[in-house]
Design a protein that fits this description.
671 residues; 42% helix; HAD-IIIC family phosphatase; SGNH_hydro_sf; 19 strands; BF1531-like_N; alpha/beta; HAD_sf
Length: 671
């Protein structure tokens, strides 16, 4: 969510002066955001109150330690009172916070930070230092709360390591085992995802610099425990995924300064392990990880060109006049490009949005020796003289993404403000005036978090670029006398059926968490739940990879159905937005019907649960020949429709995709 622009408010009375003050600066202070949130609440404008409460979290993100606890606390109160009166957020979760120190400040701020990440949360706070008791007691308040996510807000003082260990390996292994056993208990008793705070290393080290040479030194062991917990989290459940995630508190502490992160005054007086000024920062990053677990992360970084990816204006300075790669200024812009490449390798899609002649802009990518980014790294290249909001809408539509998946970076404050006001769902990163600060501004943005790396992440930009090529091809078809069916045949598409197993599970879990547009039931399951469901003999799991003459798009579709009486009933049916419009759903329906026949069942059943984003598939069952039904044991619900289709009724897919299998269990279905 971008900061509300002046044009989003209709000020009256006391609001007028506040809005005028906000309009005079790109990023209003936390205090001003708080005043605006409170003023909108008093004016009975819950939408405005929530917008400014959330804007406050970005104002504080620009400060070194997220200073402004009082402002955050006030904004959290506004959010608590006003959010229920606004349009619901797309995702909700029940979050339990268990701590080894005082957590009341964190739990007060976490709903505000989570709402900024796109998740409305209900909070349960365990008693001070009672995290073990809550986890080990099956009748505790934790399990009565039925959490979706459990946050272990623990600190280095609760780690059972000696000052110098005689057996360093054994000490680390024992400590890691202690924490992972708690994870296992939570997972077994509640199925909740876990977010654990990693341990921030203390600034006070009695061994001094000798600690680096002492294998058993506590300082070294703490760092190793963090690393081993990271490895253990990656292996939790069948195939890992998002079941357990860590917040890198040591990185956060190092960023603000360890002596700032831990203030002994707060510890000795209130057992507050994190200094109060740093609690907003901790809440923000904890919420970003929770958002990633629930599939709320942003997907696409959209970059301007002139004075953003290089120094200078291409149309005025020419290719040779650009600052890029050499000299202090050129190195600053090269660092931004290097970071964008790193984001791309972890699955963030890159796009260009520039006011430029397209041919000239592309030439810079192809010919300038200082360019780190290449055209092959860009999924959508938009260079024209259209305004930036119009270009951003075109980028989102071409890539099959919502505006709320985009993050926009531009050196020009006027362009940033235009996007905030006219395409408010796009997140906008405010760059400093000095290009040497661009990298830090980009790196401080927390909402690209992801829970795991999959093979598809490394090639995501290429697959989205292929989608853009498809869109261009569709446009060409519309302009010519050719047929859309002929165009699809010309793509030479091949769908490969693969098993839902330990190799594909991380990607399937990622799709289930993230997919919104082509998602008929909206069910969100983590990797463990998916593995358990797929292992049942009454479950049919059909996963499809798709490749065409442009690219291998990877695993892009999942259909999970369970035997229910005489029917094979759809539990989960979703497809990546990158392949929407390819007719892959027709092939999936045929596979589902064939699987039901193989099992000797009479029909296939399914339901559609409407959401804010899946109207695209509202008519899918009807188009595929299903009949709407109203089960006797299911009360009418305007958001849910139920459908059925007999397996003995003729069905023919469009036959525009060749379907093969890498799963011997599907050979009989494919015939």
């Amino acid at each position: 969510m971008a900061r509300p622009g002046a044009g989003t408010d209709t000020p009256t009375g006391p609001l007028t002066a506040l809005v005028a003050r906000a309009a005079a600066t790109e990023l209003p202070s936390a205090q001003l955001c708080r005043e605006l949130a409170v003023a909108h609440e008093r004016a009975d404008d819950p939408n405005g109150a929530v917008r400014w409460a959330l804007a406050l979290t970005d104002a504080d993100a620009s400060a070194d330690a997220g200073a402004g606890l009082a402002a955050w606390s006030a904004a959290a109160g506004v959010l608590r009172r006003c959010l229920p009166r606004t349009r619901p957020l797309a995702r909700t979760a029940r979050v339990a916070v268990l701590g080894s120190s005082t957590t009341s400040q964190l739990t007060a701020l976490l709903p505000l930070a989570a709402a900024r990440a796109g998740v409305a949360i209900e909070i349960y706070e365990g008693g001070y230092g009672q995290y073990r008791q809550e986890i080990l007691d099956p009748a505790s308040g934790l399990y009565q709360f039925r959490p979706d996510v459990v946050v272990l807000a623990v600190h280095a003082g609760d780690v059972a390591l000696p000052a110098i260990a005689d057996d360093p390996e054994g000490a680390v292994a024992a400590e890691v085992s202690r924490w992972t056993s708690l994870w296992d208990t939570v997972r077994a008793r509640s199925g909740a995802r876990i977010v654990q705070h990693g341990f921030a290393l203390p600034a006070e080290v009695a061994l001094g610099h000798l600690a680096l040479r002492t294998a058993g030194a506590r300082h070294q062991l703490l760092a190793r425990v963090n690393a081993e917990l990271g490895r253990a989290a990656s292996a939790v459940g069948a195939g890992g995924g998002d079941a357990v995630c860590l917040v890198d508190c040591d990185r956060l502490a190092a960023g603000v300064g360890r002596r700032t992160w831990f203030d002994p005054r707060y510890w000795h007086r209130a057992r507050q392990a994190v200094a109060l000024d740093c609690v907003p920062l901790l809440a923000r990053h904890t919420a970003a990880v929770i958002g990633a677990q629930l599939g709320a992360s942003r997907k696409c970084l959209v970059l301007d060109l002139d004075n953003t990816l290089w120094g200078g204006v291409l149309g005025e300075d020419g290719l040779a006049g650009l600052a890029l790669g050499e000299g202090p200024l050129g190195e600053a812009f090269a660092a931004v490009q290097d970071y964008a490449l790193e984001l791309s390798r972890r699955g963030v899609v890159l796009a260009i949005c520039s006011k430029n002649n397209e041919a000239d802009a592309r030439e810079a990518f192809e010919r300038h020796p200082g360019m780190r980014l290449r055209l092959s790294d860009i999924a959508m290249f938009s260079a024209s003289w259209d305004d930036k909001p119009t270009q951003l809408r075109r980028i989102a539509a071409t890539l099959g993404l919502g505006l709320d998946a985009l993050v926009f970076v531009d050196d020009n404050p006027a362009e940033r403000e235009a996007v905030r006001q006219l395409a408010g769902e796009v997140d906008v990163i405010a760059l400093p005036t000095d290009p040497h600060g661009y990298l830090r501004a980009l790196a401080d943005y927390p909402f690209f978090e992801t829970t795991a790396l999959t093979a598809e992440d490394a090639t995501r930009t290429a697959t989205y670029r292929a989608r853009a090529d498809l869109a261009a091809g569709l446009a060409a078809v519309r302009e010519s006398a050719g047929s859309l069916e002929d165009f699809h045949r010309g793509l030479a598409m091949t769908a490969t059926v693969v098993a839902l197993d330990e190799l594909t599970l991380p990607r399937v879990a990622q799709l289930v968490a993230r997919t919104n547009q082509f998602n008929l039931t909206g069910r969100r399951r983590d990797a463990d739940d998916l593995a358990a469901l797929a292992a049942r003999p009454t479950t049919a799991a059909i996963c499809l990879r798709l490749a065409d003459r442009f690219a291998d798009h990877g695993l892009v579709a999942v259909l999970i159905a369970v035997v229910d009486g005489d029917a094979l009933a759809v539990d989960t049916w979703l497809m990546s937005c990158r392949v929407i419009g390819r007719t892959l759903e027709d092939e999936l329906a045929g596979l589902l019907l064939a699987e039901a026949r193989r099992r000797g069942l009479a029909r296939v059943a399914g339901h559609y649960r409407a959401s804010a984003k899946n109207a695209l598939v509202a008519g899918l069952y009807e188009r595929l020949g299903f009949t709407r039904v109203l089960p006797a044991d299911v009360p009418p619900d305007a958001e849910v429709t139920w459908w059925s289709r007999r397996v003995d009724e003729p069905y023919a897919s469009r036959n525009l995709i060749r379907v093969v299998t890498a799963d011997h269990r599907m050979e009989e279905v494919l015939g």
